[in-house]
């Protein structure tokens, strides 16, 4: 009996792919690093709906373009299977669950005046997430770098720089791609050119912590978060300094304490880490502010994927572009490892957090079918018992 080639993906409907991303958005903890790992594990290794080449292309494009990495990778995989409609459907399916959860938490926060118990949850969840990040980096490195010493060198340099500077440097990604282009690219010839407020139903829709927001404030929210989505590269960690500078220092929308709570909300909810913008938008201008903030930060990244995707896909097999992409991919994996180190330095604080991270790692390695959300929630419950009520 003939078997399909391992290079050929299994048949997959858009409905099945959308349901997968709806579930991932609802239970996928760990931020962009872990989420990218889940997609590689589920879609490439288990279901085989996406080929390794398509996944690597999507990861490279997501890292090259500004915006949240996990959301852009999901958008590209949707485009691969369903064009612009597929990209749009998958983007909405992936972001919607965490957006709705953040809306509920935002409403509770506004009415209760704070979320002290979140610090206890994050104490445990943060330690568990670091183990998941480390596991994801290990698997991504094994898949994208193999035994290539040059790619591992690029990985190491980007990892050290990211850990040292605590930021992701886009020119270093591009330089890595250019390096591989010159060392391994074999051009075959020139590439061919590719042939508000007056209509609001209720004031409560725009009411944040400081009362009803004006239409001018909504515009400022939209423009600010669109700028963040257009200029910040890589993981959710990269957008935090940008948000802090604008939300706390420039616009004075939130206090330091409220901003830290917003970051905590992003870390204890599944889905893209940058969904924290919805929490910030809610506190400033109510539910409509949350929607405007989320649309602002995700729209540029969506456009940065669907516009270049046809050309990126068309020329991805060109040796010169392939060399460039391999360099960028190695750089991206290294930067992800560096970001994981930065997060780990803040989350692994003492003996209990070391123990929770170790238990999570062992559970993921030894119990291969252990559901990550259950492991993370268990760590959060331990953290709540140890710190949440103190």
From TrEMBL:
<protein>
    <submittedName>
        <fullName>Chromate transporter</fullName>
    </submittedName>
</protein>
<dbReference type="InterPro" id="IPR052518">
    <property type="entry name" value="CHR_Transporter"/>
</dbReference>
<feature type="transmembrane region" description="Helical">
    <location>
        <begin position="259"/>
        <end position="284"/>
    </location>
</feature>
<keyword id="KW-0812">Transmembrane</keyword>
<feature type="transmembrane region" description="Helical">
    <location>
        <begin position="85"/>
        <end position="109"/>
    </location>
</feature>
<feature type="transmembrane region" description="Helical">
    <location>
        <begin position="321"/>
        <end position="341"/>
    </location>
</feature>
<keyword id="KW-1133">Transmembrane helix</keyword>
<feature type="transmembrane region" description="Helical">
    <location>
        <begin position="195"/>
        <end position="215"/>
    </location>
</feature>
<dbReference type="Pfam" id="PF02417">
    <property type="entry name" value="Chromate_transp"/>
</dbReference>
<dbReference type="InterPro" id="IPR014047">
    <property type="entry name" value="Chr_Tranpt_l_chain"/>
</dbReference>
<feature type="transmembrane region" description="Helical">
    <location>
        <begin position="20"/>
        <end position="38"/>
    </location>
</feature>
<comment type="similarity">
    <text>Belongs to the chromate ion transporter (CHR) (TC 2.A.51) family.</text>
</comment>
<keyword id="KW-0472">Membrane</keyword>
<feature type="transmembrane region" description="Helical">
    <location>
        <begin position="150"/>
        <end position="183"/>
    </location>
</feature>
<feature type="transmembrane region" description="Helical">
    <location>
        <begin position="221"/>
        <end position="247"/>
    </location>
</feature>
<feature type="transmembrane region" description="Helical">
    <location>
        <begin position="121"/>
        <end position="138"/>
    </location>
</feature>
<keyword id="KW-1003">Cell membrane</keyword>
<feature type="transmembrane region" description="Helical">
    <location>
        <begin position="290"/>
        <end position="309"/>
    </location>
</feature>
<dbReference type="InterPro" id="IPR003370">
    <property type="entry name" value="Chromate_transpt"/>
</dbReference>
């Amino acid at each position: 009996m003939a078997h399909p080639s391992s290079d050929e993906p299994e048949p997959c409907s858009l409905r099945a792919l959308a349901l997968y991303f709806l579930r991932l958005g609802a239970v996928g903890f760990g931020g962009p690093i872990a989420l990218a790992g889940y997609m590689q594990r589920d879609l490439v290794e288990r279901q085989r709906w996406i080929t390794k080449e398509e996944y690597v292309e999507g990861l490279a494009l997501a890292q090259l373009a500004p915006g949240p990495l996990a959301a852009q990778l999901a958008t590209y995989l949707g485009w691969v299977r369903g064009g612009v409609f597929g990209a749009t459907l998958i983007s909405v399916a992936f972001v919607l669950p965490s957006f709705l959860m953040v809306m509920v938490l935002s409403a509770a926060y506004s009415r209760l005046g704070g979320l002290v118990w979140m610090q206890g949850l994050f104490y445990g969840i943060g330690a568990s997430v670091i183990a998941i990040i480390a596991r994801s980096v290990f698997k991504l490195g094994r898949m994208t770098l193999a035994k290539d010493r040059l790619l591992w060198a690029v990985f190491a340099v980007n990892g050290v720089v990211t850990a040292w500077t605590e930021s992701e440097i886009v020119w270093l990604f591009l330089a890595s791609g250019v390096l591989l282009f010159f060392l391994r690219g074999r051009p075959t010839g020139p590439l061919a050119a590719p042939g508000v407020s007056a209509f609001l139903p209720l004031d409560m829709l725009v009411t944040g912590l400081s009362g009803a927001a004006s239409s001018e404030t909504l515009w400022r929210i939209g423009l600010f978060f669109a700028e963040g989505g257009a200029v910040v590269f890589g993981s959710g960690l990269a957008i935090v300094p940008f948000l802090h500078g604008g939300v706390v220092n420039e616009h004075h929308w939130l206090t330091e304490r409220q901003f830290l709570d917003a970051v905590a909300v992003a870390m204890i909810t599944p889905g893209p880490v940058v969904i924290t913008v919805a929490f910030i938008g809610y506190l400033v201008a109510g539910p409509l502010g949350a929607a405007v903030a989320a649309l602002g930060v995700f729209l540029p990244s969506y456009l940065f994927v669907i516009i270049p995707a046809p050309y990126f896909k068309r020329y991805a097999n060109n040796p010169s572009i392939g060399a460039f992409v391999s360099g960028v991919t190695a750089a991206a994996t290294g930067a992800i490892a560096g970001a994981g180190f930065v997060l780990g330095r803040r989350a692994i604080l003492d003996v209990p957090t070391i123990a929770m991270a170790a238990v999570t790692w062992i559970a993921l390695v030894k119990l291969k079918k252990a559901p990550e959300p259950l492991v993370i929630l268990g760590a959060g419950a331990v953290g709540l018992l140890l710190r949440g009520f103190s």
